[in-house]
């Protein structure tokens, strides 16, 4: 794009939207961002940007002109009252005192912290240390729980570690690409461009897409599998059944590098092509074709995202797909591997620092006593608590029951994005004290805050993020913070120091020489501590530095000390896995259908997902009219037969009802839906998509309808499936 203004300064940074992690060049003049271009040297995008990324400078400007930024701390003396300005010092004193008071009265388990996959790695690290090292609870979870916790659990259950083994360059080497549960064309547009390029350069490459919706991604497929919602495990077992029958597995690889294949064979025996065709709604001939393209010795790369993850069986779905790669030996070599795509820009960084309720620093596990001891030693605290923390849904359910007294929410909008909104709103109302640390004043969650703390955002922030292919990129500030906004890591650092003063008994237990857990003056000092925590771990980055990122550009982990100046493209090339015996584990999981089946009262299966040009709750993208050019208003997408049966034409208003609430929304037919299935985009909240809970309380957005059921292993909620009814609404 051609800058409107002459650029006096150009800053190399990273796009803050999806997990592709594109590099950007930010142009600024006199402290104002005036342009953005794709960074031609960034190995994720090589100069390209999608519509969201290429308008970052415009949304940055719009958020200022439309006054949607939160520019100074605000205090609400009474719930529902007007928030009044308060000085930073007084705001932080109040926040620390209220949290310390709850901890003194009810213990550390009575507070909860809820963050975001959009926090930088440095922000995440300080928050994790604050909650688990100082406060003494593991009640720290983030919206990444809604995004990729099933991918984490799936990798760990099979490969022994949360490490995506492939890289973007593998698109070019694959003979078969299998995209399942992902609309890459919309959710990761620049990756989709790279896939288009790969297909153009390699005409023999086959693309298989399995999705309940006929998306733009599915339209490009050589073979489209219109899978019934939630039946992924049956599909993957069925494909393995065929591969076994047709000798398309690699018995040598299985014998040398895996364990547990016999148990899996016993499970997949019942998944005959006929049975799977019935369960999944896919013709037998297409199942055979898919298995033949994916099996054998030519490289196969699987790409997957929320369609597998956001499920009450998310871990099983991930593991069953990884089974296919282990059975065929399609992992650890060019063009092959199970490659989970991350939704958010730094979901991976959050995983690396262990910034979730069940994780610890550098891919350590909270449930592992030795790992807890190692992290306690690194931090200089007597212990890391063993009691599991509350995950996202559990945290808000506990607060709704009155068990969590104080909530700290940073860089996310649970009052729109969490499932079962009625419970989340009750939680926010019932908590004694709610802090919202945010860049934008317009989120629904801000309305529930007792204290609002202004945070910096893209263009102002400084630190690192990690994208889907394990690549660490620098995020650099181009302009000073807007208004009185402060960096997230700095806010957590100050909260930590104030809590140390208010909870001296905890400081007294620190190991000798540890004066404060929060000695940080800059993000680099945080990152160096994080780096040290990775020493000897699978994600070892002790050979990396901010300086090397400046000179050699973004790098993939691992990059251990003495490992040269470039990270590792692929993992498991030698067939050794980070398990006790070095072998990967097959997962003999059973197929279990979605939690809430459609029935006579709620006959439709509701799916939710992203649009191409919007991001999450629209706090940034919703400020720019241009980004509504693709899709201008919310709608429920319905199959033409169902429209006809309900007596609807495009644009008619309908009431979509679930057991938890309802929304009023226009109906339309895009051609993507199967009969009996409907779809609503996740982005609209606020006044755009009004609804009510079962008790008549006003709610907004599609999550008035969604259910809180979650995967028993990953605790990721089933946002891709809820049973709903649709009724025409007669207008006066
Ligand atoms: Fe940003 Fe993702 Fe678009 Fe790249 S593909 S420009 S990271 S939104």
From TrEMBL:
<dbReference type="GO" id="GO:0042128">
    <property type="term" value="P:nitrate assimilation"/>
</dbReference>
<dbReference type="GO" id="GO:0016491">
    <property type="term" value="F:oxidoreductase activity"/>
</dbReference>
<keyword id="KW-0004">4Fe-4S</keyword>
<feature type="domain" description="4Fe-4S Mo/W bis-MGD-type">
    <location>
        <begin position="8"/>
        <end position="64"/>
    </location>
</feature>
<keyword id="KW-0479">Metal-binding</keyword>
<keyword id="KW-0560">Oxidoreductase</keyword>
<keyword id="KW-0408">Iron</keyword>
<dbReference type="GO" id="GO:0043546">
    <property type="term" value="F:molybdopterin cofactor binding"/>
</dbReference>
<dbReference type="GO" id="GO:1990204">
    <property type="term" value="C:oxidoreductase complex"/>
</dbReference>
<comment type="similarity">
    <text>Belongs to the prokaryotic molybdopterin-containing oxidoreductase family. NasA/NapA/NarB subfamily.</text>
</comment>
<dbReference type="GO" id="GO:0051539">
    <property type="term" value="F:4 iron, 4 sulfur cluster binding"/>
</dbReference>
<protein>
    <submittedName>
        <fullName>Assimilatory nitrate reductase (NADH) alpha subunit apoprotein</fullName>
    </submittedName>
</protein>
<dbReference type="GO" id="GO:0045333">
    <property type="term" value="P:cellular respiration"/>
</dbReference>
<dbReference type="GO" id="GO:0016020">
    <property type="term" value="C:membrane"/>
</dbReference>
<keyword id="KW-0500">Molybdenum</keyword>
<keyword id="KW-0411">Iron-sulfur</keyword>
<keyword id="KW-0534">Nitrate assimilation</keyword>
<dbReference type="GO" id="GO:0046872">
    <property type="term" value="F:metal ion binding"/>
</dbReference>
């Amino acid at each position: 794009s051609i800058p409107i203004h002459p650029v006096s300064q150009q800053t190399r940074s990273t796009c803050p939207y999806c997990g592709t992690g594109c590099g950007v060049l930010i142009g600024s003049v006199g402290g104002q961002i005036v342009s953005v271009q794709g960074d031609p040297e960034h190995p994720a995008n090589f100069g390209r940007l999608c519509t969201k990324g290429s308008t970052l400078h415009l949304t940055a400007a719009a958020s200022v002109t439309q006054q949607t930024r939160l520019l100074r701390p605000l205090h609400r003396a009474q719930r529902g009252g007007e928030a009044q300005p308060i000085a930073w010092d007084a705001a932080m004193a109040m926040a620390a005192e209220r949290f310390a008071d709850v901890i003194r009265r009810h213990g550390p388990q009575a507070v909860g912290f809820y963050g975001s996959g959009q926090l930088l790695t440095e922000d995440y690290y300080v928050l994790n240390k604050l909650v688990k090292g100082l406060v003494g609870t593991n009640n720290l979870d983030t919206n990444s729980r809604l995004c990729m916790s099933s991918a984490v659990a799936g990798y760990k259950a099979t490969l022994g570690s949360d490490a995506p083994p492939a890289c973007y360059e593998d698109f070019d080497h694959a003979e078969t690409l299998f995209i399942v549960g992902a609309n890459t064309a919309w959710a990761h547009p620049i990756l989709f461009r790279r896939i288009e390029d790969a297909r153009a350069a390699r005409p023999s490459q086959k693309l298989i897409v399995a999705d309940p919706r006929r998306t733009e991604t599915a339209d490009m497929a050589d073979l489209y599998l219109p899978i019934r919602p939630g039946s992924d495990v049956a599909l993957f077992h069925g494909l393995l059944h065929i591969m076994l029958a047709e000798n398309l597995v690699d018995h040598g690889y299985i014998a040398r590098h895996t364990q547990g294949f016999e148990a899996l064979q016993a499970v997949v025996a019942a998944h005959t092509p006929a049975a799977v065709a019935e369960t999944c709604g896919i013709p037998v001939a297409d199942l055979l074709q898919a298995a033949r393209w994916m099996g054998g010795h030519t490289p196969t790369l699987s790409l997957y995202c929320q369609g597998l993850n956001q499920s009450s069986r998310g871990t099983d779905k991930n593991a069953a797909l990884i089974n296919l790669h282990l059975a065929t030996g399609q992992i650890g070599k060019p063009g092959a591997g199970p490659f989970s795509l991350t939704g958010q820009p730094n979901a991976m960084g959050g995983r690396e620092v262990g910034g979730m309720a069940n994780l610890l620093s550098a891919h350590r596990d909270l449930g592992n006593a030795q790992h807890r001891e190692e992290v306690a030693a690194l931090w200089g605290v007597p212990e890391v608590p063993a009691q599991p923390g509350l995950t996202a849904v559990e945290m808000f359910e506990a607060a709704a029951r009155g068990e969590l007294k104080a909530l700290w929410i940073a860089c996310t909008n649970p009052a729109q994005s969490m499932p079962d909104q009625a419970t989340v709103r009750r939680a926010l109302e019932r908590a004694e004290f709610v802090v919202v640390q945010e860049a934008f004043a317009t989120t629904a969650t801000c309305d529930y805050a007792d204290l609002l703390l202004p945070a910096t955002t893209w263009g102002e922030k400084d630190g690192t993020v990690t994208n889907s292919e394990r690549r660490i990129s620098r995020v650099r500030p181009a302009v000073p913070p807007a208004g009185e906004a402060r960096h997230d890591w700095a806010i957590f650092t100050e909260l930590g120091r104030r809590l140390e003063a208010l909870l001296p008994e905890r400081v007294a237990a620190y190991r000798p020489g540890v004066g404060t857990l929060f000695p940080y003056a800059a993000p680099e000092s945080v990152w160096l501590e994080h780096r040290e925590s990775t020493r000897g771990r699978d994600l070892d980055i002790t050979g990396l530095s901010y300086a090397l990122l400046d000179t050699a550009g973004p790098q993939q982990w691992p990059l251990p000390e003495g490992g040269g100046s470039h990270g590792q493209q692929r993992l498991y090339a030698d067939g050794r896995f980070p398990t006790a015996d070095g072998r990967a584990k097959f997962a003999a999981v059973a197929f279990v259908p979605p939690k809430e089946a459609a029935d006579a009262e709620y006959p439709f299966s509701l799916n939710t997902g992203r649009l191409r040009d919007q991001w999450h709750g629209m706090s940034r993208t919703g400020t720019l009219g241009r980004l509504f050019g693709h899709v201008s208003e919310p709608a429920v997408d319905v199959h033409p037969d169902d429209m006809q049966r309900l007596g609807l034409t495009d644009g008619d208003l309908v009431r979509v009802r679930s057991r938890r609430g309802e929304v009023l929304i226009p109906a339309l037919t895009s051609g993507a839906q199967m009969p009996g299935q409907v779809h609503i985009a996740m982005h609209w909240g606020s006044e755009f998509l009004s609804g009510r809970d079962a008790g008549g309380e006003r709610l907004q957005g599609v999550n008035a309808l969604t259910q809180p059921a979650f995967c028993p292993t990953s605790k990721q909620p089933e946002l891709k499936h809820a049973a709903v009814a649709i009724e025409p609404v007669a207008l006066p």
